[in-house]
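As promised in the previous annual report, we have extended the structural survey to additional targets. Below is the entry for Nuclear transport factor 2 family protein.
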Amino acid sequence: MSHRTRRSYRTMIALAAAATVVLAAAAACGDEDLDLPPPPASPAPTTDNTPESNLDPADAADAEEILAAFDSYMEGYVELTQEGVLGGTDETMDRLEEIHVAAEAFDELAFEILTPNAQAGHATSGTLGWEAQVREIDWEHSFEYSDDVIPRAIIDACIDETDWTTIEVDSGEVVDGPGSRYTSEIWVTWWEADEYSEQEDRWHVSFRYDDDAPC
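The corresponding structure token record, generated without further manual editing, is:
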């Protein structure tokens, strides 16, 4: 190694040492004088599983009525299942006439949920939550079994059963649940009153298709 090379090498060591001292001093000064907040955390990735709405803006007022019908159905569902009543009694049927439910959804609630639970001595407990939006309204809808035109709306709902259980009425013991948050497709149809019904013309929840997909 030449003298010039050795001198350059010593110079580099000296400069590196000086730089280390300067950096250490700056760090110490920063610790004493600066109180900088930590860098913001990166936001967690989110997944939006909400189906796209095809709703015409002109149907916004009707959509509010449709959502109100769904709320009426869900509130009646909560009330009757918590009471643990039979589905076929006059009192229960009168209450079902008051809420916005008809067709398959009516039979399912009355005879596939209420009656079996009551016969088993079961009821529901807790809080059942839901969120909903109207995906579309088909004013010219016809079902396969009929040529009649019956306006139909489709609701995309998120049902929250995370604080919802089935209990033994006598003991209060939980026999099922709590559940989860899952999606449900709700069909709401326009039903006109007839001579056999005391109901007024209005929207009714007619079909409910629950899914295992989380929401």
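The longest helix spans residues 3-33. The CA atoms of residues 144 and 150 lie 12 Å apart. These points will be discussed at the next consortium meeting with the crystallography subgroup.
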